[in-house]
Specification:
The complex is a heterodimer of chains A (186) and B (199).
Chain A lengths: L5 H4 L20 H18 L1 E5 H21 L4 H10 L4 H14 L7 E5 L11 E6 L18 H32 L1
Antiparallel strand pairs in A: 1-3, 2-3
Helix pairs in contact in A: 2-3, 3-4, 3-5
Chain B lengths: L1 H25 L12 H4 L10 H7 L12 H9 L15 E3 L6 E3 L5 H22 L7 E5 L15 E5 L28 H4 L1
Parallel strand pairs in B: 3-4
Antiparallel strand pairs in B: 1-2
The chains are: A mainly alpha (186), B mainly alpha (199).
Keywords (chain B): Mitochondrion, Ribonucleoprotein, Ribosomal protein, Transit peptide
Function (chain B): Component of the mitochondrial large ribosomal subunit (mt-LSU). The mitochondrial ribosome (mitoribosome) is a large ribonucleoprotein complex responsible for the synthesis of proteins inside mitochondria.
Family (chain B): Belongs to the bacterial ribosomal protein bL32 family.
């Protein structure tokens, strides 16, 4: 078999890509669609957190992930990767960011490089679903609040210890009563 | 039939021409005026013969009308809508929850609007500051945004290899300060209530 392995050709992304593209409203046709996506991909690398309509955010996510993973795989000496970065990133100072900041940041990641959240809708307005797209490891305050039910909180530790002590006490009582029963039987 | 129609058309044409001719000769014709009518003529007794249904059907044109009664399912569907497609009645929403962090309502699988607004305001400010600071220079280091007085909390080596952007204000406390104030005053010897403290 002379067939090349697909995994060698394209890097496997850690996000789910739908088999069909999402329709974007684009009077300029396919080229206009690419221009639109190029703008958002560029903005994502620049601002690291964006609020967009859900469809365009989802489409942008795939392109951004692909670009980062290619950059991690091949590095900045690979000509096709560099051409790809040159095409997708309009502000050229961000190409430096991709290879010098994002590649070291994401090279050890086991998860996806971006996150997509659904933004709240203003009830009762009927609006297009909005979403928040961000690069992981950004310098901004985290979108999801810290979880309250942390195990290492002091009251949780104290409650656990109290539970253990209560259980030990109960077991002692049970063993005592069993011993007494044995004495009575004999 | 065809001949009759053409005759009518010619007649109309002639009368129209005659009127125009008169207008040219004598100026505008006088407007139509009221005239007396003979009341005896209008009270003529109508013909007394009965209406023949067969004849009626033969002579008249029938327009389309519903042939069958609509089924109850269809009528109910039109009235209330369909649950699977489009339901017209009001239904209780079951996808609203309260945020564990701030207590506001949020839609299931969406961000909490209150928490998100707080983060968003902060983020836009960060982004503006970073953009202003970096400008058009090639970005070669990670950017860290620090509030006032945060830099001294950690040693110098910690910030090595990072580009620091400092904000001019202190870190916002996302915690209600009122919670620290005591609501009751205990162990006071004085028993009379001062009205000024109530308000």
């Amino acid at each position: 078999m002379n067939q090349a392995e697909v995994s060698q050709l394209i890097s496997k992304l850690r996000i789910r890509i739908s088999p069909r593209h999402k329709n974007l409203k684009c009077p300029e046709g396919p080229q206009g669609r690419l221009n639109k996506l190029r703008k958002t991909v560029n903005a994502l690398f620049k601002y690291e957190r964006l609020e967009l309509n859900y469809t365009i955010a989802d489409e942008t996510r795939g392109y951004a992930e692909r670009l980062i993973s290619e950059a991690i795989r091949h590095g900045d000496t690979h000509k096709p990767t560099m051409e790809m970065a040159d095409y997708w990133i309009e502000e050229k100072q961000l190409i430096h960011k991709l290879f010098k900041v994002l590649v070291p940041r994401f090279s050890d990641y086991k998860t996806s490089y971006t996150m997509l959240y659904r933004a709240p809708k203003a009830y009762p307005d009927i609006v297009y679903p909005r979403s928040v797209l961000e690069l992981r490891g950004n310098p901004f305050p985290s979108i999801l609040p810290q979880r309250i039910d942390q195990r290492n909180f002091i009251h949780n530790i104290l409650l656990e210890e109290a539970k253990k002590a209560y259980r030990a006490e109960k077991y002692e009582q049970i063993t005592k009563s069993l011993n007494e029963q044995d004495v009575v039987d004999k | 039939m065809k001949g009759l129609l053409t005759f009518k058309r010619i007649k109309n044409h002639l009368t129209f021409n005659f009127n125009a001719f008169c207008n040219v000769l004598f100026g505008q014709m006088p407007p139509p005026a009221l005239s007396f009518a003979n009341p005896v003529e209008t009270l003529k007794p109508s013909s007394q013969h009965l209406i023949d249904v067969q004849q009626l059907f033969k002579n008249s044109i029938l327009w389309a009308v519903p042939k069958h009664r609509r089924t109850i399912e269809k009528r109910l569907g039109r009235k209330f809508g369909y649950i699977t497609e489009f339901y017209k009645m009001l239904m209780p929403r079951t996808d609203l929850f309260t945020c564990n962090h701030c207590g506001h309502y949020y839609q299931r699988r969406h961000l909490c609007p209150n928490c998100y607004k707080r983060v968003k305001d902060e983020t836009t400010e960060f982004q503006e500051v970073i953009e202003k600071e970096l400008g058009l220079d090639p970005i070669e280091q990670e950017v860290v945004v620090l509030y006032k007085g945060e830099k001294t909390k950690k040693p110098e080596e910690f910030w090595k290899g990072k580009r620091i952007v400092e904000l001019k204000r202190e870190k916002p406390v996302w915690f209600c300060r009122n919670l620290l104030q005591r609501t009751t005053i205990g162990n006071s010897d004085c028993k009379d209530v001062k009205p000024s403290e109530l308000a």
